[in-house]
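Reviewers asked in the last cycle whether our approach scales beyond single polypeptides. To address this, we selected a multi-component target totalling 680 residues and predicted its structure end to end. The input consisted of the following lines:
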Amino acid sequence: MVKITVNGREVEADPKQPLIAACHGHDVDVPHYCYHPGLSTVGSCRMCQVEVQQGTAPGRVMVACRTYPAEGMVVSTESEKSHATRRECLEFLLKNHPLDCPICDKAGECDLQDFTYQEGQATGRSKEPRRPLEKRHSLGDVIVLDQERCILCSRCVRFFEEVPKKAQLTVASLGSRSVIATFADQPLTGNYQGNIADLCPVGALTLKGFRFQARVWNLVKMASTCAECSRGCSIQVEVLRGGDVKRFRPRENAAVNRWWMCDTGRFAFDHVNAKDRLVNSLVRDGHGLAPRSIEDGIAAVRALLDAHSDALFVASPFCTVEEGASIQALAKRRGTTALFVAPGPNGLKDALLHTGDPCPNRRGLTELGLQPIEPKELAKKLASSKAAVLFGERVVELAGAAAIAALPTSTALAVFDCKAPDAAACTVAIGVPTSVERTGTWINVDGQKGPIAAVKPAPAGVRALARHLAALDLRAEAARS
Amino acid sequence: MVIVKRKELSLSERLYVPEIVRGLSITFRKMFEKKITRQYPEEPLVKTEVTRGQPRLVVKDDGAIACVSCGLCEAACPAYAITIDGGETDRPIEREPKRFDIDMLRCILCGFCEEACPKDAIFMSDELELADYSRQALVYDIEKLKRPAAAMRRRIEYVNRINDRWRDAPRPPMLVGRDAPHGAHAHSPAAAAQRPHAS
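The resulting structure, written as structure tokens, was:
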């Protein structure tokens, strides 16, 4: 560690990390485009220039991402010289950048916009028209490129070279006609393409799935955890006007996913946006499953448990540690063991993040003492038992909707799920919230805790599983005394 | 508790008749003066180009609205009356509203949406009357908000004239790099005053 002075404040800095990292580490903002802590540095945007003084020499303006801290360095990010250099730099970047902000998806979270408001000038001096390039250039199924907006920071190029370690993009052509392009115009491949839309500091690379879906300032954003696999990447869930989830984005977490996430996880919000939700409860009468109040549903589950003391308890791998503990406690009190559905590897495992295991809380539930069971074995076990209670989000789907539907009516089934099950064996079904409508903790494959957050309210008539379990538990206590 | 002291009435006030005469004299005098009451709705309101009525989406000569659903009017709206959902279009503007709702019961006719619009798509019309049998019917969608440009010409010209007052202003001085006066912050008025205009 060396001692440097940043804006008049003496701080410790790691000489192996670039100066910009030292500045950011001490809450000194340095505008930048090409620098990203997860990628190599190239110093191509020249935006992070700061005034650096060493020894008796007069201060010089240097790029903070390619300069390394040295003992006694005096750095000024706010000096007139560094401001002026950054303004000059912005003027060049804006020379050919279209005034697209009203239609650009990045507007509101765009670094070019932010730093221009912060540093730049309101009007341009250039009299020449901006150079026209392709506005809607498709780069595969995930990404669309607007060549005019690109400022050639090359973050996307370096991402493919350094993170999935398979180069797919390059800067093609020369001078002002330089564009980002794939080799031989092949579409992008791989499961990590979405990350370049997050990396892009401007609106050049945008997600096809998010294109024109929402203005980013209308999105409510909360920190949560990805449900795609047992890696449990830290994500940010973004919801438009308390309604649909519009976007999952990775959140920096050095212990789990660093800055990245896979595309299967990024776009896995169809389930939480589903409109055919199970609200209140369904109880089977002479004509089939009929809508009833939650209290009636709980009473029916209670009756089922009273009639069958050996009822199987099966949790969903989406159950949080807290829900799992309640299920486990209820099972223990009744003298049975609780299981959880654990589908096997789905073949999406890769070397980077995806574990291929579709159970986000496998480790958390296993550590609680719930036993994992494969869907096939579970179906056999359910068919041979008289009664079972299935708990949690997507439990029917993961246990195999077809297998559950095929169960004989000799098995009495109570289901707590987001969707109404289509099964003759089901006698009662009660709605529960999805993973964006409740709070709790998942534990990932490496034992890291992943908090999940209620980003939007559950639909009317849907209560947390914990409340249903408490209601069941209270009545169990009352019945004993 | 407040105790209100009643004023002692004078003899003429207690007599009642003189005060009645005084009051009626005002009534009779006003009967012969110029009347200022407007007989609305029989007599329509005088509407000028400055009248801010309900906002409308202007249909340009090509038959389309200029709105790109950027959401700036939605953000500017102090009454949260506007809701916009965007979507892709094959037109050169790339993006257009799939849903553009203004809840006229919430709209306070402030004109912020007109001011915020970067595409000259929304203008305040001179329509002020608003009545219907349900609240939902007063949430106007794109079709209800559309007005041909010809019908809005007076307001559009007025707004453009107002905006041009700023558009024609001399450009702010450029203070970049070595042009910037040494030691002074380029954004300060003092620094701006020192510099001749760069053009």
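The first strand of chain A starts at residue 2 and ends at 6. We regard this as preliminary and will revisit it once experimental data from Aim 1 are available.
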